[in-house]
Write a structure and sequence with these properties.
By secondary structure, the protein is an alpha/beta fold. The longest helix is centred in the last third of the chain and has 20 residues. The protein folds into 2 domains: about 140 residues, Aspartate Aminotransferase, domain 1; about 230 residues, Type I PLP-dependent aspartate aminotransferase-like (Major domain) (Aspartate Aminotransferase, domain 2), CATH 3.40.640. A 7-stranded mixed β-sheet has the order 4-10-9-8-7-5-6, with helices on both faces. The protein has a 4-stranded mixed β-sheet with strand order 1-2-3-12. It has a 3-stranded antiparallel β-sheet with strand order 11-14-13, with helices on one face. The chain is built from 15 helices and 14 strands. The mean pLDDT is about 95. Helix content is about 40%, strand content about 15%.
């Protein structure tokens, strides 16, 4: 068999493109955060992870431009060799202080952070235990490790207890969960997870990609739930609230030191460019100086969730500004996405395997910079389309 035969037989995406219902890789002609332009059409953006609206903040923009003027566009090397700036070290110190850990380590992307951290720590004979709805980067980090991966049902503590009880007591164990789950917008029950980790002598890592900047006064899920001392590792990404690109892992200094010298995705990748480092630093300063942004995005999330539910939409278990509109059928989800797009609303259709079978949904997410007028516009269009398609009364 020719290796490329699978490529020639892959027709699903082209069929969607031909039908006009293909929602992916859409090029944005322009964006200012809460609104975007695609093919000359203006849409309200409710599909972004720019939770605090900082990508267009003057302080963040200027910091990125000034760093580029000073250092150029790239460090042209890995952190391990010539790619570490004093600015990287300063950012790591400030991030560790922010999430109340001893030390932090900055990676070039959030995806690489999970790959490098998990594969560095979990070796042959060890076990890594994940929630079935954990992010793909966690799953791939587990696959890259030499350990054994086990999974438990989403936020099901009885099932986590069952899985941990079957692992040899002498084996090293790392439980990895999302703090806020990226599709459902629900929160991991960290107090209960931490208790089980104590019971079975397991370490706990929390991916806070979607909770830093939102929960715990912006500091993440563990601080929000009062269990930061019981969480061993906190992961964060810079492509959401921090309005940049990159990621970090924070924890005790010896563990971070070990990861720094064993994470292949850190050692063999070019470091974060100066402009991105400066943008994150400035975003962190704004998050501290303007806590009203964090309050605002949560107020908006609560309001939109209540209004969607009032209209009759199924928002699942969302507790955050990530609000799924659960449709169920995959083709219906694409159809509804298209109608909303034509009405001027940008959403993200999510289908299996990103969600369980028969739980296709529209992922909506909100920013601190959304206006009351934009929210009213979105709700009006959802109401119109929902009633046209008999999704709501």
């Amino acid at each position: 068999m020719d290796l490329f035969e699978k490529c020639w037989k892959f027709t699903e995406a082209r069929e969607l493109q031909a039908s006009g219902f293909y929602p992916y890789f859409m090029p944005l002609d322009d964006t200012e955060g809460t609104e975007v332009t695609i093919g000359g059409k203006r849409l309200v953006m409710i599909g972004s992870n720019n939770y605090l609206g900082l990508t267009t903040h003057p302080r963040v923009r200027e910091a990125a431009m000034e760093a580029t003027r000073r250092f150029g566009t790239s460090c042209t090397g890995s952190r391990f060799l010539n790619g570490t700036l004093a600015w990287h070290l300063d950012l790591e110190k400030r991030l560790a202080e922010y999430v109340e850990k001893e030390a932090a380590l900055v990676f070039s992307t959030g995806y690489q952070t999970n790959l490098g951290t998990i594969s560095a720590l979990v070796g042959r004979g060890d076990y890594v235990i994940t929630d079935k709805e954990d992010h793909a980067s966690i799953v791939d980090g587990c696959r890259l490790s030499l350990g054994t991966m086990k999974r438990f049902r989403h936020n099901d503590m009885q099932d986590l207890d069952r899985v941990l009880s079957q692992i040899p007591a002498e084996a090293g164990k790392l439980v990895v969960v999302d703090g806020v789950f990226s599709m459902g917008g629900d929160i991991a029950p960290l107090p209960e997870i931490a208790a089980l980790c104590r019971k079975y002598n397991a370490r706990l890592m929390v991916d806070d990609a979607h909770s830093i900047g939102i929960l715990g006064g912006g500091k993440g899920t563990a601080i929000h739930l009062g269990v930061n001392d019981e969480v061993d590792l906190v992961m964060g990404t810079f492509s959401k609230s921090f309005a940049s690109l990159g990621g970090f892992i924070a924890g005790s200094e010896p563990v971070i030191h070990y990861i720094q010298h064993h994470a292949r995705s850190l050692i063999f990748s070019a470091s974060m460019p100066p402009g991105n480092v400066a943008a994150v630093s400035a975003a962190l300063e704004v998050m501290i100086a303007e806590p009203e942004r964090i309050e605002r995005v949560n107020q908006i999330g609560n309001y939109m969730r209540q209004e969607f539910q009032r209209l009759g939409f199924n928002t699942g278990s969302s507790q955050t500004p990530i609000i799924p509109i659960i449709i169920g059928d995959m083709q219906a989800t694409f159809f509804i996405w298209k109608m909303l797009f034509e009405e001027g609303v940008y959403t993200n259709p999510v289908i299996p395997p990103a969600v369980p079978p028969n739980l296709s949904l529209l992922r909506t997410s909100y920013m601190a910079t959304h206006t009351d007028e934009q929210m009213a516009f979105v709700l009006d269009k959802f109401s119109k389309v929902g009633r046209m398609l008999n999704l709501i009364p």
